[in-house]
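Batch manifest, entry 17 of 40.
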Amino acid sequence: MKIRLAWRLARVVVHLCEGLATCALVFPFASSTLRARLTRGWSRRLLRLCRVQVEHGGGVPALEHALVVANHVSWLDIFVINALDPCRFVAKAEIRSWPVMGWLAAGAGTVFIARGNRRELRHVFKGLVEVLQKGERVALFPEGTTGLQGQVLPFHANLFEAAIDAGVLVQPYALAYLDAGGALHPSIEYVGDTTFVDSLLRILQGPPVKARLACLAPLESVGAHRRELALAAQEAVGAAVAVAR
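Output type: structure tokens
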């Protein structure tokens, strides 16, 4: 068992190093189309190495241009979404400090926000509107932190204003991680004092994971209020997560 775990971990580490090299040597010169293709391929390979099978879980087609909002369960979330529908991400500043993964996320263009920093939030908000107006797909986790599987925490409304100002649709995504029997997977929880390394080892040692991503009906932002938009997205994701259970 220990040899098997060591082998799986070694393969993941090698793949992470390949990702670091790509971010450092290729991404600075790559077009947005090439970056998306490389991000999708690398994310799919990472998930396979972690024995995570990813699939679309019904819903509607993913929009090419939208503000994507999703429930936040695990560090896997970013890579599950990128394996299917590559996005630019907005994430909490704590992710930047994660070993290797934080650097990879930064290299892939993730924007990090420090909690309680209103000045930084205004700066990020302005940049987010500009990116959306350029036609890119941007994703964020409005809960602000990871939660227990099967639960959806209240969505913070602040960054929904960016979709309103940019005049783009908001598309909710619902994430669920299941075992072979269709129940919520026991190795995925990423709350409390669990570290990234703890979570990675638990996933590598546990049974295979099925990651299900449902793209839900988009919400019109024009003329909407950010709180109403956040609540509508939260309710849509909550209903989809309940069905996934």
